[in-house]
Write a structure and sequence with these properties.
The complex is a heterodimer of chains A (210) and B (226). Chain A is mostly helical and 210 residues long. Chain A contains eight helices and five strands, in the order ββααββααααβαα. In chain A, the strands form two sheets. Chain A has a three-stranded antiparallel β-sheet. In chain A, α2 packs antiparallel against α4. Chain A is elongated and about 70 Å long. The termini of chain A are close together. The relative contact order of chain B is 0.15. With 226 residues, chain B is mainly α. Chain B has two domains: 63 residues, no CATH class; 154 residues, no CATH class. Classes of the chains: A mainly alpha (210), B mainly alpha (226). Chains A and B meet through α4, α5, α6, β5 and α7 of A and β1, β5, α2, α3 and α4 of B.
């Protein structure tokens, strides 16, 4: 026992991922038992959590490159075409004086996805190295990545709205660029990576050691 | 009131739960496992309290009041607002002699026309279909529960509602509207329509419906085990 703490696993119980019911691990049998209340598959920990999270994470890291290099929008105004990447959008807003909007886009589209990748890589590595360092803080980091990940979608929605509104024929026209697709893929993949990771793995090492 | 096989009672969690609490599931021991670190605790049942996991600090349980009526009311108003948001004008752009009027779904059609099917589908799902399905699902489950019965299929539907929750992103879409407006402010006059207001209220109402919902209570009420 670590400081009088008992985990469900140590007590021989599995908490259902869906409804939270505590089921005796033996009753579920060695294979995938079903929750007697809600019917969800029972696992003490999310299955293949680390491998799945790594797969989503690496794919997201690869997609992050074209998402930032390729144009997000292609604007045609009076015959002249202009491509905008995420970063050039941020710079445009700084120059035009709307630094609040520049900050929103920078944080949501550049900083958050990057921070999410770095934090998840750190968490996965620390769990794989059976690290015992500040488990509570690492758990908080995980909850933060879960919470903020969705806000990166903001740029995808901006493109959707711009594409709908700016349809003035030869005068002005905005089309979605290839980066919009890559960017949406990055957001979805990092969300899936965070969902696959099981924060209880951070605490398992500490319990097993004691 | 303690069942076997739960382990020793937690010394840091005083037992203050009256066993006669009508909201309490008879089978339940009141012990729950923390979602984030798997610690077993016995959260407080006092109204309005939030129980934190003593080990990792995550919210283990929030005791909510009126947790059938409130989400029900929010879900119902959400569906009405949804109808308004989908049928009324969303944004219009005026520049020179040109006027471009849009509805909520115009952007998705444009993405579709550009052959960006996946992207269009993602926006449609995260901003319309998933929130809509969540609200109708809640209504389908909560109305019968209010009448002390359970609709068929409530259990898989409730599981689905909780599963897709992180993919409902209307509040992010609202920020997207704001950014797009600022971006176009220099280029043209943007006229927000009734759908924008409806969407704003809808975001508040949807968030409130999910926040006032008490999943452990719903699970206990849906429990059909003998």
């Amino acid at each position: 026992m670590t400081g009088g703490y008992t985990s469900a696993r140590r007590a021989g119980l599995i908490a259902c991922h869906d409804c939270g019911l505590l089921v005796p691990a033996g009753a579920a049998g060695p294979g995938h038992g079903r929750c007697p209340r809600c019917g969800a598959a029972l696992h003490a920990r999310k299955p293949n959590s680390i491998a799945r999270a790594w797969a989503f994470l690496l794919a997201a890291a690869v997609m992050y490159v074209p998402a930032n290099i390729l144009p997000m929008t292609i604007t045609t105004a009076l015959g002249a075409a202009q491509s905008d990447t995420i970063m050039s959008g941020v710079i445009y807003f700084i120059h035009s004086g709307s630094w609040e909007i520049a900050a929103v886009i920078f944080i949501a589209s550049i900083f958050v996805p990057m921070a999410k990748l770095v934090i998840l890589i750190f968490l996965l590595t620390s769990v794989q190295l059976r690290c015992r360092w500040r488990p509570r803080d690492r758990t908080v980091l995980y909850r933060m990545t879960e919470l903020v990940g969705r806000w990166s979608m903001v740029d995808v929605y901006v493109v959707t709205i711009l594409v709908a509104l700016v349809k003035l024929g030869a005068v002005a026209n905005i089309e979605a660029g290839p980066a919009a697709v890559f960017f949406a893929i990055v957001v979805v993949l990092t969300m899936l990576a965070a969902e696959s990771f099981d924060p209880r793995l951070i605490w398992d090492v500490i319990e097993e050691d004691s | 009131m303690m069942n076997t096989a739960i382990g020793s009672p937690r010394r840091h969690e005083p037992e203050q739960t009256p066993a006669s609490d009508p909201r309490r599931d008879r089978r339940s021991t009141g012990v729950v496992a923390c979602h984030t670190c798997d610690l077993l605790t016995r959260p407080s049942d006092a109204a309005g309290t939030t129980s934190l996991c003593p080990r990792c600090g995550a919210v283990v349980h929030r005791q909510k009041s009126n947790s059938i009526d409130r989400p029900l009311a929010f879900a119902l108003s959400g569906l009405i607002l949804f109808a308004i948001a989908l049928t009324h004008p969303f944004l219009a752009m005026k520049s020179g002699g040109f006027v471009q009027e849009t509805t909520l779904l115009t952007g998705i059609f444009e993405l579709w026309k550009q052959r960006l099917y996946g992207l269009g589908a993602l926006v449609l799902l995260t901003c319309a279909l998933i929130p809509l399905a969540q609200l109708s699902g809640l209504l389908y489950i909560l109305v019968p529960l209010r009448l002390n019965t359970a609709a068929p299929g409530s259990i898989p539907i409730f599981r689905a509602i909780l599963h897709v929750n992180s993919w409902a992103m209307m509040e992010v879409f609202l920020i997207g509207i704001l950014v797009a407006l600022v971006k176009l402010a220099k280029m043209a006059t943007i006229v927000p329509g009734a759908a924008v207001m409806a969407l704003g209220l809808l975001t508040v109402v949807t968030t409130a419906a999910m926040a006032t919902l008490d999943p452990p209570l719903i699970w206990a009420r849906l429990d059909r085990r003998p």
